[in-house]
Amino acid sequence: MPNASARPKHGRRTRRRRREDPARNELVSSSLESAQQCLFNQDYGTAFVHYLLVLNLAPMFKDFARESFRFTLFKWTEELDSVGRIQDLFDCYEQALELFPADEVILNSMGEHLFRMGFRDEAAGHFHKALKLRPDYPEARENFYRVANWLVERWHFLMLNDHGRNRKYQQAIQKAVQSGCNTVLDIGTGTGILGMCAKKAGAAEVYACELSKTMYELACEVLAANKMDGSIKILHMKSLEMEVPKDIPHRVSLVVTETVDAGLFGEGIIESLIHAWHHLLLPPQRGENEFQEQSATGRVIPAGATVFGMAVESLEIRRHHRICVSEVGGLSIAAAGELRSPVSCSPEPDDSMEPYTTERLSRLPGGYKPLTKPFTALNIDFNNVQDLEGLSSREVQQIRLPVTQEGVLDALAVWFQLHLDEESSLSTGPQEDTCWEQAIYPVHSTRGFVLKPRDELIVEVSCRDAFLRLCSVAVLRDGREIRLDELVDLQDSENPISNQTPEAELCSALACLQTDQAQTKDFCMLECSEMALLNNQEYHQSFSNALAKLISQLKVKCQNKERGSDVQSGLPDSTDCSDLFYVLDVSEGFSLLSLIAASQGRVKAYSSMEKNKQQEVLKRLARGNNVPEQRLEFWLNHMEDEQGMLKRPTREKLWSAIMLDCVETCGLIRQKLMEKASLARCLLEDGGSIFPAKIEVHGMMVESETLLLESAVQGQEPTLGFNIAPFINQFTVPVHVFLDFSTLECRHLSESVELFVLDLMNTNANYINRDVKVQATSSGRITAVPFWYHIYLDQEISVSTLSKNSHWKQAAVVLQQPLEVRVGDWVRLAVKLHKSAISISAHIENTPGPMDQ
Ligand code: 44T
User: Fold this and answer.
1) Which of 1, 787, 804, 831 has the lowest tally of Cβ within 10 angstroms?
2) Distances in whole angstroms, Cα of residue 202 to Cα of each of 353, 682, 694, 778
């Protein structure tokens, strides 16, 4: 019991409260009773209000009522969610967390709502908190692993593991501080490393700012662990919001920053530095020969940058940004209209478009071919505010590049040299042994263009809205200029990689005639992975074959049944063989599968695509492929007339086939896949099937230093003498995603093995733990087990997520402890599947034994 004398200020209130006790107790108990009654009646909203009242008035009931309160909260917010009352939903969670601030279940659940609403950072913060409260809480752990990548991006590990880069930054900072820059601001401090370098070099005052909440909190922990929390002032804010003297007492003599992305300007460095020069930095040094005290002038590390570009051919880039096929799964896609990836250097800036994507050229599957020599696209001086400010008003610069090799123009690749000072620089080039990716500006004109050695490529470089934009505009060939942006019109004569048959081209021309002008100008945007999926003929052909097989089996079955029932009873049967087969495609994102089904004849297919533009594309394709309009419907458009959908008169079960999308592009099994499969199975007609019927997970033991470097700060040595690793390594996740196994630098230490099987047609047949014995084929250190899937549509037809044209990437479990093996050793891989998350641990086991499941 609290001691009243120890809290004199509250003494009176406590006494007053005590006097009120009887009435309050009555209110509490009647409210508690009402809460329970409402809960029983499933009136969750009212129950929730009663619980709030009870627990606010009588916190001692918290333990007793916790479970029911949580249940009420979850039920009520589920209802709010279903009617779109999102603000109310979050208000309820806020109220719940005021009562139970350390309740990991509530935190985790709120995180899930936030995640579904698209607030990824906030969601991640909630999962992280839940996990800190209860490290063995599997739901929160799985959720945390799924979002940790957003919270602390993986490149932090790479950068901290890049000793060359760390040392160069440290030396440049040391030199600057020793030459007199003794007040320092680190913009975008991340883990605090550059700020700590400045302090260690002897700077009198060091300030740092960081806009990400998680990174800010992490930096605070790191500073404290390095006993610099008293000497470095760190602010949780964007540098653009900082003011003198509110946030820092006076202007500084040095700004250090590494707020640069693969495209140099993507983290807003231009804006940050313009602002810093106007508000946070001392004036720059004037003339070269004028001597000024360093502590009275300002400067920036890095001092500037040079940006390089190069035209490349890469099939991998092409198939993610352009449609390269004219036919998929038996459908001509000529009528689709223009489909664009969201990465485009279109001159009109558009929020939904990204000007570039990133790739590590050296790791592109299938490699790349340089078509020009590298050229200098831009030079920028970070110590010259006029230069920075003039960037967006710089005229568009045209560069003429001699073509050095024949090849399809797929993209311009961009990298840069960061000049830390006059002596030292870092390069993010494709040949360097660094952690950097290159920026990729894909060519977006619909068809590819083959550059020839005597051609000249004309590239335009501009810098609007603080993004560098590069665009291949034309080719000079034999004194003639061929505009690349008008290539669509020229495709007949200038389309060297078109593999359309004359018939398909005719269809395409007809389809264009059918659609009106406005529509052809219009385009539909697809994700890069959706583009790659559309280009994946093997995938669509497999579905088409499996569906055709299923339909013909169902037809036979139906005929047999009809015959049987004629003979046996003479009574009319409910089955009618002229009936349609119903197929549902619940793939995420853009999917042709429903149309492929509808084109099979006697099939009515439902697509679950929601976006209007994508529905339009599918309808156009239906028309272009002579699929009758009524054979293809959009499931979500029918939600209101559920009656019509669900109660088909002749059969009690609905669907002949349901297509599930089971693997995410990143290489993980979709969350709730098994639940969805169970549900789908209940909706199948007799003999119907879900696609896929089964998924096999395959994997291989490898030694890969790269995967370790991307997963955690490695080694026992402190980073530049600072203690950082244990803090950032809290954000290590055991499963690495978006991996390209074909180009991963690694040594294979075993053959590939089947790790796990998921039977979607019979969920009861599944297990959650499995031991797999694998023999090492080489000696080495097992650091990871990359894995992928063989997706069985039926018993025979399968697609592999490892195949060359796959739109899927692979994932890998990075072992907590690498395991040394010698050739011939038997290793036991303990594979676990919790919900849809895979975990693996490896153990030496020198006696080969039968697999225990
Ligand atoms: N990319 C590297 C980014 N920030 C490098 O919140 C290299 C990418 C990369 N804070 C592959 C490999 C690599 N005021 O924590 C972030 C960010 C913060 C700011 C305050 C501001 N104006 C900003 C702007 C950004 O700065 C930190 C670093 S930014 C990016 C660093 C391994 N792909």
Assistant:
1) 1
2) 45, 70, 63, 50
pLDDT of 349 reads 60
Mutating to test ligand 1, I would choose from 152, 222, 267, 433 the residue with most ligand atoms within 8 A of its C-beta, which is 267
- How far is Cα 505 from Cα 484, in angstroms, rounded to an integer? 20
pLDDT digits (tens, 9 = 90+) for 295-313: 689 999 999 999 999 999 9
In sequence order, the β-bridge partners of residue 338 are 523
Express each pLDDT in 616-647 by its tens digit.
999 999 999 999 989 999 987 655 544 444 43
Q: Which two tokens stand for residue 785?
A: 């087990």
Angle (CA) 123-128-131 rounded to 5° is 130
Distance CA 328, CA 624 (A): 13
* Mean pLDDT score across all residues of the chain: 87
Which are the contacts of 407, defined by CB distance < 8 A and separation ≥ 6? 312, 313, 369, 371, 450, 451
- Compute, in degrees rounded to 10, the torsion defined by CA atoms 211, 217, 223, 228: 80
**Which residues, in sequence order, are CB contacts of 85 under 8 Å at separation 6+?**
none
Q: What angle do CA 98, 103, 104 make, to 5 degrees?
A: 135
* φ, ψ for residue 801, nearest 5 deg: -80, 0
Classified as helix, coil or strand, 134 is: coil
Q: Cα(302)–Cα(350) distance, rounded to whole angstroms?
A: 30
Among protein residues, the one with the nearest Cα to ligand 1's atom 14 is 238
Substitution candidate for ligand 1 out of 161, 166, 210 with most atoms within 8 A of CB: 210
Question: How does pLDDT run across 784-795, given as a tens digit for each residue?
Answer: 999 999 999 999
Q: What is the pLDDT of residue 498?
A: 42
Tally DSSP H helices, then E strands, for the chain.
25, 38
Cis peptide before 245 (omega within 30 of 0): yes
pLDDT at 22: 83
Ligand 1 centre to CA of 170 (Å) is: 17
pLDDT single digits (tens) 195-249 = 999 999 999 999 999 999 889 999 999 999 999 999 999 999 999 999 999 999 9
CA distance 443 to 409: 7
Q: Which residue has the tokens 């696209």?
A: 377
**What radius of gyration do the chain's Cα atoms show?**
31
pLDDT band, very low/low/confident/very high, at 516 (cuts 50, 70, 90): very low
Give the residue among 520, 525, 512, 536 at the shortest CA–CA distance from 611: 525
Q: Taking a C-beta distance cutoff of 8 angstroms, is the pair 233, 186 a contact? A: no
Are the C-beta atoms of 755 and 787 separated by less than 8 Å? Answer: yes
Amino acid occupying residue 555: K
CB atoms near residue 824 (< 10 Å): 11
Question: CB–CB of 511/335 below 8 Å?
Answer: yes
Going by C-beta distance under 8 Å and a sequence separation of 6 or more, which residues neighbour residue 685?
Answer: 554, 582, 651, 653, 654, 655, 656
User: Quick one: tokens of 542?
Assistant: 């497999």
**308/329 Cα distance (integer angstroms):** 41
User: pLDDT of 52-101, one tens digit each?
Assistant: 999 999 999 999 999 999 999 999 999 999 899 999 999 999 999 999 99
Q: From ligand 1's centre to the CA of 138, what distance in Å?
A: 31
For the chain, the farthest-separated pair of C-alpha atoms sits apart, in whole angstroms, at 110
* 531 CA to centre of ligand 1 in angstroms: 29
Mean pLDDT across the stretch 477-493? 69
Global pTM?
A: 0.85
Which residues sit with their C-beta closer than 6 Å to ligand 1? 155, 158-159, 187-188, 190, 209-212, 215, 238-240, 258-262, 267-268, 272, 358, 435-437
Coil vs helix vs strand at 599: coil
Question: Per the structure block, which two tokens stand in for 832?
Answer: 């676990």
Residues present in the chain in total? 853
- SS3 per residue for 609-621: CCCHHHHHHHHHH
Q: What is the pLDDT of residue 518?
A: 39
